[in-house]
Design brief:
single chain; about 280 residues; 9 helices; about 75% helix; about 0% strand; elongated; membrane; transmembrane; FTR1/Fip1/EfeU; ferrous iron transmembrane transporter activity
């Protein structure tokens, strides 16, 4: 699970770090450094909330019966897929305009007052944090309850994201963010498909969905999960050697629908209508 969680940590971490760097740069360049503590207060609150949500989810699941735990984990996995799907499409749509939008919102918040600045920073970073917390929990569930590999992947990805965002802020490196988010978004489609399939499998084990023993294929003899290549596939795509029909349909259906939509050329916004100059 290390590689898939590293990708999630890198993607979510870079989004959050870019948001923070845009806000900080705006305040520094407009000589409003006095508002920096307010932004950092909002960012800190968002991080603490995200950690708290992840802890609550993990603690709650640990105190449930097996079937209830599987049902809870399966539901959380589906919610995580919804979050990640929305995130990759949102960033694809706003990658070129996010800086302008954030500067505009922060400028409005500064005019309103300190509380508005804290709240704006909290909301801007909190979205990525909550998505990461839910996805981290679903990764822990699919890893069999062990938190070491998922946590290590997330932390490494977030650390790389912070360093990359700092280098971008300092102007030391240049990255085509639109291309970066397109490539990572396409990879995340396959990661999310694996999480979705595993979530449906959890619901089958919980007895919520039927067909637990109706397999679409069993390749454990050819591609065992404990082999190095099986471990690699499981770590990136949540590969399962014994895949149920519902799992396979969920995985294939998600990729078949979401990937073409994500890679489809974006429509350019229609030009604004010219105001009429005809007098009454």
């Amino acid at each position: 699970m290390l590689l898939s969680n590293l990708l999630i940590g890198l993607r979510e971490g870079l989004e959050a770090a870019l948001v923070v760097s845009i806000l900080v740069a705006f305040l520094v360049r407009t000589e409003r450094r006095a508002a920096l503590p307010l932004v950092w207060a909002g960012v800190t609150a968002a991080v603490l909330l995200s950690v708290g949500v992840g802890a609550v989810l993990t603690f709650t699941a640990a105190n449930l019966s097996f079937r209830a735990q599987e049902g809870f984990g399966g539901s959380a996995s589906i919610v995580a897929v919804v979050f990640v799907t929305g995130m990759i499409f949102w960033m694809r749509r706003t990658a070129r305009t996010i800086a302008t939008e954030l500067r505009g919102k922060l400028s409005e918040a500064l005019n309103i007052g300190p509380v508005a600045v804290v709240l704006m920073a909290f909301l801007a970073v909190g979205r990525e944090g909550l998505e990461t917390a839910v996805f981290f929990f679903s990764s822990v569930q699919s890893a069999g309850g062990g938190t070491t590999a998922p946590l290590a992947g997330f932390l490494v990805g977030i650390a790389i994201a912070v360093v990359l965002a700092w280098l971008l802020y300092r102007g030391a490196v240049r990255v085509n963010l639109t291309r970066f988010f397109t490539v990572t978004g396409a990879l995340l489609v396959f990661v999310a498909a694996g999480v979705l399939g595993y979530g449906f499998h959890d619901l089958q084990e919980a007895g919520v969905l039927p067909g637990l023993h109706t397999l679409a294929f069993d390749v454990s003899g050819v591609l065992p999960e404990d082999s190095w290549y099986g471990t690699l596939l499981k770590g990136i795509f949540n590969y399962s050697a014994q895949t149920t029909v519902i799992q396979a349909v969920a995985w294939a259906g998600y990729v078949a629908i979401v990937l073409p939509l994500f890679l489809a050329p974006q429509r350019k916004p229609a030009a604004a209508a010219q105001p009429s100059t005809t007098s009454a």
